[in-house]
Amino acid sequence: MGAMSESVSVRCPACRREHVYEASSYPCVCGVPVAPALDEHGAVTAVAHRAWDEDWVVVRCEACGRRTQWPYPELGCGCGTVLRIPVAGPSAAASPRAAAPARRRVFQPVAIRTARDAVTAAALYLRWLGYRDIRRADQRPPSGIGLAARGLLVQVDPTVRPATLRDVECLWLTAMTESTSCVYFSLAGFSPDARTRADVLGIPLFVLDLTGTPQAVNSHADDLDADGA
């Protein structure tokens, strides 16, 4: 896998429109940007439905050799079709697995433009903290998107409304039944009573800004950011 982004010409299978796609690069924990190698001879496919395991691809950093999961290359066509760009080499879709570095580097965010970006930003941050086996949660939360890691239940709310008291309590109750800790990421922040209850229940709250950087809302989030997994 190269550290430099590359571009390929792709054709939408629905409307036959031609596009030039450039692979996005992401920062490895060693600090070097990596990007998936694109297969210019492979077949572009339309995304008919979402499956968490199919949304990720393994990318190897040439600098340190670490293999990490990153979002599978996709492109939105003007006709409304979402195109999945083929990748070259032995890369395989897989649920993300965190590799906790011995010493954490500065977190490198990914800009948020879509709800999927918000989930990606939260997953990258959790990986940076040192959590392993990040995946879709078994139970879907009442709002937002649920993730899970080893010993942790996560809720990511990419909507434009602040998370409510009920949202926070539902996350806590679900985590209690699974005997795990929990953390909440919200794009629009939290209502005052939700923040108060989270403080009492010991739930770290983070607001995701549009750069993809989680901002700690309470002291529990400050502690998690400082100490990691």
3D architecture notes:
The chain has four helices and 15 strands. The chain is α+β, with helices and mostly antiparallel strands. The chain folds into two domains: 7-84, no CATH class; 115-227, Trna Endonuclease, Chain: A, domain 1, CATH 3.40.1350. Strands 10-11-12-13-14-15 form a six-stranded mixed β-sheet, with helices on both faces. The protein has a three-stranded antiparallel β-sheet with strand order 5-9-8, with no helix packed on it. The chain starts with 6 loop residues before the first strand and ends with a helix. The model is unreliable at 90-102 (pLDDT under 50). This is Restriction endonuclease type IV Mrr domain-containing protein.
The number of domains is 2
Number of strands: 15
Distance between the ends: 29 Å
SS-based class? alpha+beta
Beta-strand proportion:
25-35%
Question: Averaging pLDDT over every residue, what do you get?
Answer: 83
Oligomer kind = single chain
Please state the second-level CATH architecture of the largest domain. Answer: 3-Layer(aba) Sandwich
Spatial order of the strands in the main sheet?
10-11-12-13-14-15
CATH class of the largest domain: Alpha Beta
The main pleated sheet reads as: 6 strands, mixed
Helix-residue proportion: 10-25%
Specify the number of helices: 4
Spell the H/E element sequence.
EEEEEEEEEHEEEHEHEEH
Shape by Cα distribution: globular
Q: Provide the low-confidence segments as ranges.
A: 90-102
Protein name: Restriction endonuclease type IV Mrr domain-containing protein
